[in-house]
């Protein structure tokens, strides 16, 4: 899909009206046509089927008109004419042919309804997979920037709207072919009437286009409002506890009412235009039919049967013209949702997760070498950070709030890449190595671990299907959570979630530790793992870390000195720089920050 550049839109603004419209349509088509690519073979089949159905219907209408006139006149032989073909048939044969054509048309109609459904289901599935894969393959910096609820809205509302646009396209193509066939058949019956009708119908179509454009504008507003509305709804569930405690419910209610109102306005206009436009088209189109009849009367067409046939065909053509209008409207109102999907796909694909191709062996030692990092151009967060750690060693990272500790963790986990310097594994730049190898060797316990809705086993295994139940239990033992789990009536099959069926903070943290330990990592990174724990739980986590230490590299970010008891050395970070590195005793001599924290801890303890 081609991104739409600013310079392009700048050029477009200088162009005159009609040219701008054409350029705008071409640009929109370039962006949106990939949505219809998978439907190409379906469209070809649809066109062929619609042509056959149109011909069957035109023949049926010609037979009905001729039969009606012949029956009124008591004829036994009926002459049916459609274009150059004219056939004499006995009355009963004509009935049989008419029944046969009606049945064939019904069958074809079913196929014509099935194909758009098939095309849109394909688009629905393909698009969801594309979005999911693009999002999951994007760099962490892209994922971290995505607003809560935005991805969910894309996957549900936007994808559904796009699939509906594809259905509308399929139905619109059918209606277009049927319209053309019916008008062509009407030409064979009465050239003048069909010509008047067609010209007026085309003129009407172009007259009503500005209303369609207005519809699209309102639909765009609606899609934007809907996105922020979903975000608010998502947020209100996430922060329900804080909202209640801080008495923010009234403000939330007011904001919610305002947002609901702002969705209502574009919604009314979109729905009004979406249903009103086809209705308007139908009324004006009936007027066209009267015009066609006036043309017939002026041109003096005498044949009663062909007059009846042309009226029937033009009435059917009108129905199809109205269907074309409503499917165009249906596509128009969904275009903004499709643009949002294109934007999101571009955003996700612009910055893919980087990967290397060198295999990674066992991690013997790990180092940050002259690492500098900035989240944005305005401020550097890490400056020339270097430290090393080897297997069997635990290193702590301490420092005041905002010193860059969590940023180091993200770099170590390869969620972000340093702007300069490197993370070295056994002396090799980790960026050149395979990410899967890194993920298999490195594990992580975050500050606030997430529990997913599922059993305790699901939570420890965490989508790594190769992990056995025995390994789950062994990891739970090492994380000192096995006894708690065993005491629950359903044991490892207990259903837990982030809020409903929640486990305690200490249990959740130890489940997260079991999740990190279950794949037997060679590097374990922990970001404030015990900050929310009581002393007993903290002691249990400390024991777990001591037990695995000799085979593992442990990197532990901490605020409290008690957490650091497992560490052999401690790195003190201040303002994004390494201010000191050493043992507890060394740092008491070298680091003002460390001494201060030590004194505060001692005062609190006494
Ligand atoms: N996603 C981000 N975008 C922009 N700036 C960020 C982002 N995350 C962190 N920062 C900034 O980077 C600096 C370092 O943040 P970091 O979270 O690494 O500090 P920290 O030492 O872990 O702090 P704390 O102890 O409070 O968790 C801070 O100034 C912070 O505002």
From TrEMBL:
<keyword id="KW-0812">Transmembrane</keyword>
<protein>
    <submittedName>
        <fullName>ABC transporter ATP-binding protein</fullName>
    </submittedName>
</protein>
<keyword id="KW-0472">Membrane</keyword>
<keyword id="KW-0997">Cell inner membrane</keyword>
<dbReference type="GO" id="GO:0005524">
    <property type="term" value="F:ATP binding"/>
</dbReference>
<keyword id="KW-0547">Nucleotide-binding</keyword>
<dbReference type="InterPro" id="IPR011527">
    <property type="entry name" value="ABC1_TM_dom"/>
</dbReference>
<dbReference type="GO" id="GO:0034040">
    <property type="term" value="F:ATPase-coupled lipid transmembrane transporter activity"/>
</dbReference>
<keyword id="KW-1133">Transmembrane helix</keyword>
<keyword id="KW-1003">Cell membrane</keyword>
<keyword id="KW-0813">Transport</keyword>
<feature type="transmembrane region" description="Helical">
    <location>
        <begin position="165"/>
        <end position="185"/>
    </location>
</feature>
<dbReference type="InterPro" id="IPR017871">
    <property type="entry name" value="ABC_transporter-like_CS"/>
</dbReference>
<dbReference type="InterPro" id="IPR036640">
    <property type="entry name" value="ABC1_TM_sf"/>
</dbReference>
<dbReference type="InterPro" id="IPR027417">
    <property type="entry name" value="P-loop_NTPase"/>
</dbReference>
<dbReference type="GO" id="GO:0140359">
    <property type="term" value="F:ABC-type transporter activity"/>
</dbReference>
<comment type="similarity">
    <text>Belongs to the ABC transporter superfamily. Siderophore-Fe(3+) uptake transporter (SIUT) (TC 3.A.1.21) family.</text>
</comment>
<feature type="transmembrane region" description="Helical">
    <location>
        <begin position="191"/>
        <end position="211"/>
    </location>
</feature>
<feature type="domain" description="ABC transmembrane type-1">
    <location>
        <begin position="44"/>
        <end position="333"/>
    </location>
</feature>
<feature type="transmembrane region" description="Helical">
    <location>
        <begin position="302"/>
        <end position="321"/>
    </location>
</feature>
<feature type="transmembrane region" description="Helical">
    <location>
        <begin position="272"/>
        <end position="296"/>
    </location>
</feature>
<dbReference type="InterPro" id="IPR003439">
    <property type="entry name" value="ABC_transporter-like_ATP-bd"/>
</dbReference>
<feature type="transmembrane region" description="Helical">
    <location>
        <begin position="43"/>
        <end position="72"/>
    </location>
</feature>
<dbReference type="GO" id="GO:0016887">
    <property type="term" value="F:ATP hydrolysis activity"/>
</dbReference>
<dbReference type="InterPro" id="IPR039421">
    <property type="entry name" value="Type_1_exporter"/>
</dbReference>
<dbReference type="Pfam" id="PF00005">
    <property type="entry name" value="ABC_tran"/>
</dbReference>
<dbReference type="GO" id="GO:0005886">
    <property type="term" value="C:plasma membrane"/>
</dbReference>
<keyword id="KW-0067">ATP-binding</keyword>
<feature type="domain" description="ABC transporter">
    <location>
        <begin position="366"/>
        <end position="600"/>
    </location>
</feature>
<dbReference type="InterPro" id="IPR003593">
    <property type="entry name" value="AAA+_ATPase"/>
</dbReference>
């Amino acid at each position: 899909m081609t991104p739409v550049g600013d310079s392009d839109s700048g050029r477009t603004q200088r162009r005159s009206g009609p040219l701008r419209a054409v350029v705008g349509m071409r640009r929109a088509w370039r962006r949106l046509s990939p949505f219809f690519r998978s439907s190409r073979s379906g469209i070809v089949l649809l066109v062929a089927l619609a042509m056959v159905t149109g011909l069957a219907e035109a023949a049926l209408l010609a037979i009905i008109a001729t039969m009606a006139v012949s029956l009124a006149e008591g004829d036994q032989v009926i002459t049916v004419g459609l274009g150059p073909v004219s056939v004499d048939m006995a009355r009963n044969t004509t009935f049989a042919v008419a029944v046969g054509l009606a049945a064939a048309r019904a069958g074809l109609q079913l196929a014509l309804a099935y194909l758009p459904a098939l095309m849109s289901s394909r688009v629905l599935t393909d698009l969801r997979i594309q979005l999911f894969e693009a999002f999951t393959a994007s760099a962490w910096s892209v994922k971290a920037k995505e607003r809560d609820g935005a991805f969910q809205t894309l996957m549900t509302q936007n994808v559904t709207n796009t699939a509906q646009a594809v259905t509308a396209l399929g139905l619109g193509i059918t209606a277009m072919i049927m319209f053309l066939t019916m008008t062509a058949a009407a030409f064979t019956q009465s050239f003048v009437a069909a010509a008047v009708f067609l010209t007026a119908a085309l003129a009407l179509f172009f007259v009503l286009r500005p209303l369609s454009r207005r519809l699209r504008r309102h639909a765009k507003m609606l899609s934007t409002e809907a996105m922020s509305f979903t975000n608010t709804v998502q947020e209100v569930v996430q922060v329900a506890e804080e909202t209640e405690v801080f008495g923010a419910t009234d403000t939330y209610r007011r904001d919610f009412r305002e947002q609901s109102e702002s969705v209502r306005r574009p919604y009314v206009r979109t729905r009004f235009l979406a249903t009103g436009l086809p209705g308007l088209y139908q009324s004006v189109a009936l007027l066209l039919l009267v015009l066609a009849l006036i043309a017939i009367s002026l041109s003096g067409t005498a044949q009663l049967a062909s007059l009846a046939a042309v009226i029937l065909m033009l009435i059917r053509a009108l129905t199809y013209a109205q269907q074309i209008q409503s499917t165009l409207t249906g596509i128009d109102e969904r275009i903004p949702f499709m643009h949002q999907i294109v934007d999101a796909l571009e955003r996700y694909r612009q910055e893919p997760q980087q990967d290397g191709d060198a295999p990674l062996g066992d991690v013997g030692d790990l180092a940050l070498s002259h690492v500098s990092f900035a989240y944005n151009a305005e401020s550097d967060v890490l400056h020339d950070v270097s430290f090393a750690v080897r297997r069997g060693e635990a290193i702590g990272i301490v420092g005041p709030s905002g010193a860059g500790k969590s940023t180091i963790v993200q770099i170590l986990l390869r969620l972000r890449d340093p702007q300069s310097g490197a993370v070295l594994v056994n002396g090799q730049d980790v960026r050149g190595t395979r990410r899967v190898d890194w993920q298999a060797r490195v594990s992580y316990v975050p500050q606030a671990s997430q529990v997913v809705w599922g059993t305790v086993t699901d939570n420890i295994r965490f989508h790594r299907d190769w992990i056995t139940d025995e390994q789950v239990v062994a990891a739970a033992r090492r994380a000192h959570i096995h006894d708690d789990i065993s005491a629950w009536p359903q044991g490892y099959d207990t259903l837990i979630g982030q809020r409903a069926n929640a486990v305690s903070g200490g249990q959740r943290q130890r489940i997260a530790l079991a999740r990190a330990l279950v794949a037997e990592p060679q590097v374990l990174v922990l970001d404030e793992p015990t900050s929310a724990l009581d002393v007993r739980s903290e002691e249990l986590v400390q024991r777990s870390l001591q037990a695995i230490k000799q085979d593992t590299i442990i990197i532990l970010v901490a605020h409290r000195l008690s957490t650091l008891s497992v560490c052999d050395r401690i790195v003190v970070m201040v303002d994004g720089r390494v201010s000191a590195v050493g043992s507890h005793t060394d740092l008491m001599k070298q680091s003002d920050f460390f001494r201060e924290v030590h004194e505060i801890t001692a005062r609190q303890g006494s």
